[in-house]
């Protein structure tokens, strides 16, 4: 179900949420899960929001979506996408954000490394961000983009699941990436809790505990060397990837123990806590935290028909501002850089928006000059 605020001033909510709902009231816009959002904001307390009405998914999907052209359609409503929309909205560009509501960091309780927001729940950051962006007339559309192709006249056609098509002069891909874990039983169940991959995102919270680093990826050795400074108890589990003499020497010199080689059978957990890594021979390597490097796959299949260039890692190639090889198509955040933290993803979104607006201005000036000369 979704909810729509038809009219009235909400009471008992924070300023940002009130601003967000006030914007919805003015536009009669529909946002999924709004009712649940309100309940979370003030648990156990009465919340007065006049005339919030439930709307079924069928009704919501059947609503009229603007069909006229946007200056930019942003695909993805995370930190990168919202930052791009914020900058463009503030210079009075017509912008739509299409968000499927599937952020990469959804399993994480808190995000780290974001100045002034360190430790904030990711969902809370997005809630505040949407409220800020909404002040500038940006359209929010809940849904998935199925395909982006070239428009019949100019620009691009953004096809949403269910049939609606949005037209845009530029498209900003901010849909992030997905983490594909090795097929080892017990990993997925503990992912983002005590099965981790990023020392910058999660390392401080598990410092001093017993680490096991799984050798399932070409960068796993470097991962073990990196997390060693967080704990004096780090063991590298090679699995089926034999170590070179150089790798073995570096790990040993860094104070990382090396477990016996052999296939990894499963991650052992008990009492809601990782307890060890079991090998095929039945031996268990004790640990409290597992570090594993996932395969990072960009969520950029919607652009496949446009022929954007890619780098050897499979990510879209971009310039410093986020321009891809196809003019008018931009990629920001983890869709462009798998290493980007939340704060750097936000910065990339803002930087792309600056450059995108300048490109729009250049095109508009060129058109105005041509029209003037032709008159």
- The level of helicity is 25-40%
Residue-averaged pLDDT? 86
Number of domains: 2
Rg, Cα atoms, Å: 24 Å
Keywords: Flavoprotein, Oxidoreductase
Domain FAD/NAD(P)-binding: 70-335
Organism: Streptomyces coryli
GO molecular function, one term: thioredoxin-disulfide reductase (NADPH) activity
Question: How would you concisely characterize the structure shown here?
Answer:
With 375 residues, the protein is of the alpha/beta class. It has 10 helices and 20 strands.
Structure notes:
- With 375 residues, this protein is of the alpha/beta class.
- It has two domains: 69-179 and 296-374, FAD/NAD(P)-binding domain; 182-293, FAD/NAD(P)-binding domain, CATH 3.50.50.60.
- The protein contains ten helices and 20 strands.
- It has helices at 15-27, 34-41, 57-61, 79-90, 122-134, 187-190, 199-203, 220-227, 245-254, 342-374, and strands spanning 2-5, 31-32, 52-55, 69-75, 95-99, 139-142, 145-150, 156-160, 165-173, 177-180, 195-196, 211-214, 234-237, 257-258, 264-269, 274-279, 284-286, 289-291, 295-298, 329-331.
- The strands form five sheets. Strands 4, 5, 6, 7, 8, 9 and 20 form a seven-stranded mixed sheet that branches. Strands 11-18-12-13-14 form a five-stranded parallel sheet.
- Helix 1 packs across helix 5 (122-134) and helix 4 runs parallel beside helix 5.
- The radius of gyration is 24 Å and the shape is elongated.
- The protein starts with a strand and ends with a helix.
- The relative contact order is 0.13.
- Mean pLDDT is 86; it is low at 1-13, 25-37 and 39-66.
